[in-house]
Amino acid sequence: MGEELSRTQRLWRWLKKPLLWGIPIGIFLAVLAIGAFQGVMVASNQNAFCFSCHLSMDTIVQEYKASSHYVSDDEVLATCADCHVPHGFIDKMKVKIAATADIYHMIKGTITKENFEEHRPRLAKMVWDDMLANDSEACRHCHVGDNFDLSKQPQRARLNHELMESRGETCIHCHTGLAHKRITIE
Ligand code: HEC
Ligand code: HEC
Ligand code: HEC
Ligand code: HEC
């Protein structure tokens, strides 16, 4: 009996230890946070999220809808995020953090339909620099293996693709203006 009591006492003391409670609570909160975080990551990759700013801000969405990677509202070959959000976790985080700058610019109203063409070279260059630096990772994520079978490509495409490695070229050297108005800058 005496032993029973001391066991309850010990249990009671244990229950009172906030640190020990902290562990299961901490795990619970961490699981919740990761869940919410994943939710944010997935939701922010949907076209609707990108459209929410870019549709009224500039002409990017209209151009995308006229491009070959967009078929219909229900079918796209590539979403905005497929081309613009890297697939590696670290790179993805870098983009998400950089995108908070976009929220700042959005609130500030930096880009409007009227001044977009003036800003476009600067923005396009940001994208080109990223794609040159990561060897057009986003493109290669889809155009790979059977989806990039040189033997099935028309001659003009095949010849260019065969030579690209030896010339040190990557997709974005040639395929600019693919989803948006083609521009050239010096
Ligand atoms: C909160 C509003 C907002 C949302 C949502 C948004 N953007 Fe933007 N985006 C902007 C603004 C503002 C700029 C211009 C930033 C500047 O002037 O430097 C921009 C610039 C860009 C650029 C060019 C510059 C760069 O960083 O490469 C790309 C590409 C881009 N957005 C893609 C996307 C994609 C893809 C999505 C959806 C995953 C998205 N945006 C969602 C506001 C937004
Ligand atoms: C989410 C997957 C996906 C991504 C990302 C993607 N594509 Fe595509 N792309 C496709 C599919 C699917 C087709 C249609 C079938 C095909 O031609 O292989 C296509 C078609 C094309 C075509 C032929 C149609 C045309 O417009 O001439 C080119 C060129 C092309 N993609 C280049 C690129 C480049 C360059 C990138 C990166 C900037 C890219 N794609 C990113 C899936 C993708
Ligand atoms: C040296 C320039 C060059 C580079 C680099 C290049 N392409 Fe191409 N690509 C072309 C040309 C030229 C065509 C033919 C388009 C035409 O005739 O209008 C083409 C066609 C294509 C097509 C359509 C093929 C078909 O079956 O009709 C796809 C898809 C494509 N490229 C994807 C890519 C991807 C992905 C990369 C990077 C891995 C890439 N290209 C790198 C020049 C290039
Ligand atoms: C097939 C790949 C692809 C898709 C899909 C795509 N983009 Fe782009 N985007 C590019 C490339 C490549 C550039 C670099 C400029 C160029 O070559 O057109 C670019 C450039 C941009 C720019 C800079 C301004 C400019 O005109 O260069 C913005 C902003 C942008 N994209 C946002 C978006 C948004 C928002 C969506 C969806 C509505 C989207 N992109 C869909 C490939 C893509």
Written description of the protein model:
The chain folds into two domains: about 1-45; about 45-175, no CATH class. The protein has a two-stranded antiparallel sheet with strand order 1-2. The radius of gyration is 25 Å and the shape is elongated. The model has no long low-confidence stretch (mean pLDDT about 85). It has about 190 residues and is an all-alpha fold. The longest helix has 26 residues, at about 20-45. The chain has helices spanning about 1-15, 20-45, 45-55, 60-65, 80-85, 90-110, 115-135, 135-140, 155-165, 170-175; strands at about 70, 75. This is Cytochrome c-type protein. It is a single-pass membrane protein. Belongs to the NapC/NirT/NrfH family. It is found in: Cell membrane. Keywords: Cell membrane, Electron transport, Heme, Iron, Membrane, Metal-binding, Transmembrane, Transmembrane helix, Transport.
Summarize the structure.
Helix content is 65%, strand content 3%.
Query: How many individual β-strands?
Result: 2
Q: Tally the helices.
A: 10
Number of domains: 2
Strand content: under 5%
The structural class is mainly alpha
End-to-end CA span: 89 Å
Global outline:
elongated
- List the ligand species: heme C
The biggest sheet, with number of strands, parallel, antiparallel or mixed sense and barrel status, is: 2 strands, antiparallel
Q: How much helix is in the residues?
A: 55-70%
Mean pLDDT over the residues? 86
Strand order of the largest sheet: 1-2
Radius of gyration: 25 Å
| Pattern of helices and strands | HHHHEEHHHHHH
